[in-house]
Specification:
Layout (H helix, E strand, L loop, with lengths): L1 H41 L23 H29 L5 H25 L6 H27 L2 H37 L2
Helix pairs in contact: 1-5, 2-3, 2-5, 3-4, 4-5
Amino acid sequence: MLDSLQAKRGRLGHGVRARGARRTAAGAAVLLAVGVGAVAAAWGGGRPLIDVQSGTPPPAAAGFNAEERAYYAFVAPRLRQLAAETRELAELGERRSRNLLAIQGRQRRVEALLDELDRFLDEHGTPGRFAATSDSYLDGAASTREGIDEAREGFRRFDWDRVARATGVFTDGAAEIARAVSELDRVAGEAAQGAAGR
């Protein structure tokens, strides 16, 4: 009899805990949706972005030396993809998206590309011809990471002012990354013209 009562109490307690957990999860989801809306509303700030499409960059110029070709082969496609991902992430905010999975997915892809590019630059350096490209990239990468980190911290604390500030920083970083792509394309074009003129 005692065992039967304890079993019932255990099931009752489990049911209460489960309902409490469901209510907590539902409350958190509502707050998160509100937070995403707040981020989206604020995301429109910052500099306008250059329209950069992902995909295959222009071919490496014949005028590049071996070191420059290696840099271009690694950096050009990833930098273009990074610019496109950061633009898409900023546009999610402009559309006031509440699709948290899409936002988080893009954040992860942005961070993965930043990590790949940073490792390459640390290990191989930057040829002089691409110094301006790398400078713009590094400035943009720092702002993009800061924006993502600050937005996450704002979410955790439900501090929407902090999230709003973070989105402006992120958008500035995205604009700088787009500028790095434009600079890279400019250098490639000049090198191609130089090689053709020889």
